[in-house]
């Protein structure tokens, strides 16, 4: 059996990675979604084991120590990481898996899985990105400014990716990602 594809969807915070991933689910029901571990507190409506595995700093440190994370990154004061076992088992079973993670973590995955497909989601413009980060209404102004400056640095790392997808409209962005995955399955390796 051939291995599944590892797809990494990344891009600056607020660009809509989560929204695009949610919209992709019904369109690509066979695609498996990796659930990350984080030390951030749950937002209203988020569920443990569904949106994230919510961990204390100590529990997260234990996961790092036990080499249970494929990658992890500190992002705006919290830790986020991808549980390794689930990704490896999914790929070995021949299924495609998608990781929705920030840019530093994506680059670490690239070191370990250079054969992965790295997709960078772009905002239509930087003004639009700030509106989206503000519009979420869940963050303090200092955190919004910090997320914007992180976003500018992150966009400079786009050159390490295989594909750039503009998130101007959710449905269009999903179509572009579906097309990328379809083309990658047709690729002669
Ligand atoms: P949020 O707090 O808004 O849910 O996520 C903040 C950032 O962390 C987002 O850019 C999100 O994609 C990223 N993120 C979520 N899970 C992971 C992960 O497992 N690893 C890394 N490196 N970033 C993650």
UniProtKB/TrEMBL annotation:
EC number(s) given by UniProt: 2.7.4.8
Pfam entry (one): Guanylate_kin
Classification via InterPro entries: GK/Ca_channel_bsu, Guanylate_kin-like_dom, Guanylate_kinase, Guanylate_kinase_CS, P-loop_NTPase
Alphabetical UniProt keywords: ATP-binding, Cytoplasm, Kinase, Nucleotide-binding, Transferase
SUPFAM superfamilies tied to this protein: P-loop containing nucleoside triphosphate hydrolases
Location relative to the cell: Cytoplasm
UniProt enzyme class: transferase
GO cellular component, one term: cytosol
Catalytic activity: GMP + ATP = GDP + ADP
Top-level taxon of origin: Bacteria
GO MF terms, alphabetically ordered: ATP binding; GMP kinase activity
Guanylate kinase-like domain residues: 4-182
Residues the record lists as binding ATP: 11-18
PANTHER family cross-referenced by the UniProt entry: GUANYLATE KINASE, GUANYLATE KINASE-RELATED
Family membership noted in the UniProt record: Belongs to the guanylate kinase family.
Task of the protein: Essential for recycling GMP and indirectly, cGMP.
Protein name stated in the entry: Guanylate kinase
Protein species of origin: Paenibacillus wynnii
């Amino acid at each position: 059996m051939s291995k599944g594809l590892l797809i990494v969807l990344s891009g600056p915070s607020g660009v809509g990675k989560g929204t695009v991933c949610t919209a992709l689910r019904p369109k690509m029901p066979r695609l498996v979604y990796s659930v990350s571990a984080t030390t951030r507190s749950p937002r209203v409506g988020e569920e443990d084991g569904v949106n994230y595995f919510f961990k204390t700093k100590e529990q997260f440190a234990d996961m790092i120590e036990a080499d249970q994370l494929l990658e992890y990154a500190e992002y705006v004061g919290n830790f986020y990481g991808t549980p390794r076992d689930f990704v490896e088992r999914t790929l070995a079973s021949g299924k495609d898996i998608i990781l929705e993670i920030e840019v530093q973590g994506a680059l670490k995955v690239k070191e370990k899985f250079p054969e992965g497909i790295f997709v960078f989601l772009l905002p239509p413009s930087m003004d639009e990105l700030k509106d989206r980060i503000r519009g979420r209404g869940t963050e303090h102004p200092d955190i919004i400014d910090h997320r914007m400056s992180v976003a500018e640095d992150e966009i400079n790392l786009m050159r390490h990716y295989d594909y750039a997808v503009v998130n101007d409209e959710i449905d269009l962005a999903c179509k572009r990602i579906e097309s990328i995955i379809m083309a990658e399955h047709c690729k002669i390796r």
